[in-house]
Amino acid sequence: MEQSRIRTANLVLAGLIVAFGLVCFVATVASGRVNSALLFVVLPVALAAALALTPGRTTHGSVFRLTTIGLLLAAVALHEGAICVVLAAPLVYAVAHGITAVIRRVSYSRTLPVLLPLPLLLVGVEGVQPEWRVQPDQSVQVTRAIGTEPAALPALLAAGPRPAAAGPLALRVLGVPTPEHVHGAGLEPGDRWMFGYHGSSHGPGGEIVTEVRAAGPRAISFVVLSDSSITGRWVGLRDATLSWAPGDGGGTELTLRIDYRRGLDPSWYFGPLQDRLMHAGAEHFLDMLNLP
């Protein structure tokens, strides 16, 4: 009887997951994103339904199964924002299994039930309010040696960036969206460079609009006027500076510094992750400049 009830509960859960997936699939196809529907809806829903039909044989097995189902359904709801789910997954699993282990030992201790909420409060409170954040403003800096002499570099930079295939491994593994359309050129204050995502510069992926704030013989600074891109869900770009100097063995050392505001908390977990991704993004931007 007990096993029959478990199977019935599994079937009901799987049915609810499939129903949720159908609604999301129809909505995604209706918005003209068939490819997104297949990748971001059908695949995670199929995996979640399969997990729902597989009963957990241990407590931690059941926790892993239900946590995974929750993460997959969150990925369905977020579509391209599923990258955030991937980044958060290790932390979610650690918290879920940690709480499970503690709860299983509560019966052996009188102090654990009192102390249990304290670490949860400390871990979960960061970011609840804007002022409850730890160093959300961060920056990355990448330096690359190129063969062009410093005097010839401004003329090459004035042509502006061009779309390029994602080179850094972190961007390729996570499938981080990169600009597919780039417009603008020039190095004079007021000149704008625009980076469009998904189909067109005004497509569903949004765009990043930057403007040259200042230009000198060895540096150019940009300010981000607006950011409606899908990457803006987890990082807020603020400004950037391109600077260059003669290289030790000839050529030029080109340095890109990007200032941004971290969009995810807690800082001890997402800070290093976003730093690594922003380094990869800075490397990709230098690739887009197509310098020798």
Question: Care to give the gist of this entry?
Answer:
The chain has 292 residues and is an alpha+beta fold. The chain is 47% helix and 20% strand.
Low-confidence stretches: 199-203
Shape: elongated
The CATH architecture category of the largest domain equals 2-Layer Sandwich
Strand order of the largest sheet: 1-7-6-5-4-3-2
| Secondary structure: number of strands | 7
Based on CA atoms alone, the radius of gyration comes out at 24 Å
Approximate helicity band:
40-55%
CATH class category of the largest domain: Alpha Beta
The CATH superfamily of the largest domain is known as START domain
What are the secondary-structure elements, in order, as H or E? HHHHHHEHHEEEEEEH
| Estimated share of beta-strand residues | 15-25%
Question: What do you see in this structure?
Answer:
By secondary structure, the chain is an alpha+beta fold. It folds into two domains: 2-124, no CATH class; 137-288, Alpha-D-Glucose-1,6-Bisphosphate, Chain A, domain 4, CATH 3.30.530. It is elongated. Helix 1 packs antiparallel against helix 2 (34-52) and helix 3 (59-78) runs antiparallel to helix 4. It is 47% helix and 20% strand. The protein has helices at 2-30, 34-52, 59-78, 82-106, 112-115, 117-124, 153-157, 169-174, 267-288, and strands at residues 137-146, 181-183, 192-196, 207-215, 219-227, 235-246, 252-262. A seven-stranded antiparallel beta sheet has the order 1-7-6-5-4-3-2, covered by helices on one side. It is built from nine helices and seven strands; from the N terminus they run ααααααβααββββββα. Mean pLDDT is 81; it is low at 199-203.
